[in-house]
Amino acid sequence: MSITMKELAAMAGVSCATVSKVLNKTDHHISKAKTEEILSLARKYDYTPNVIAKALKVRNTRTIGFMLPDIRNPFFPGIVRGIEDEAMAKGYSLIISNTDNDPEIESDCFRMLQNRMISGVIFTRALSTSTVSELLELNIPVVLVDRMIDALRKESVGQIFINLHDAFFAATGFLISRSDGPVAFICADEGSDRPRFNGYRDALSSASRDFDESFVYIGQYDIETGAEGVEKLLACGKKFSGLMCGNDLIAIGAMNKLREKGLRVPDDVKVIGCDDIEFAALVSPSLTTIKQPTYEYGRKAARMLIDSIEGKASPFSCELDYTLVIRESCY
Amino acid sequence: MSITMKELAAMAGVSCATVSKVLNKTDHHISKAKTEEILSLARKYDYTPNVIAKALKVRNTRTIGFMLPDIRNPFFPGIVRGIEDEAMAKGYSLIISNTDNDPEIESDCFRMLQNRMISGVIFTRALSTSTVSELLELNIPVVLVDRMIDALRKESVGQIFINLHDAFFAATGFLISRSDGPVAFICADEGSDRPRFNGYRDALSSASRDFDESFVYIGQYDIETGAEGVEKLLACGKKFSGLMCGNDLIAIGAMNKLREKGLRVPDDVKVIGCDDIEFAALVSPSLTTIKQPTYEYGRKAARMLIDSIEGKASPFSCELDYTLVIRESCY
DNA sequence: TTGTAGGCGTTATCAC
DNA sequence: GTGATAACGCCTACAA
Question: What CATH number should be reported for the domain whose range is B58-162+294-321?
Answer without folding.
Answer: 3.40.50.2300
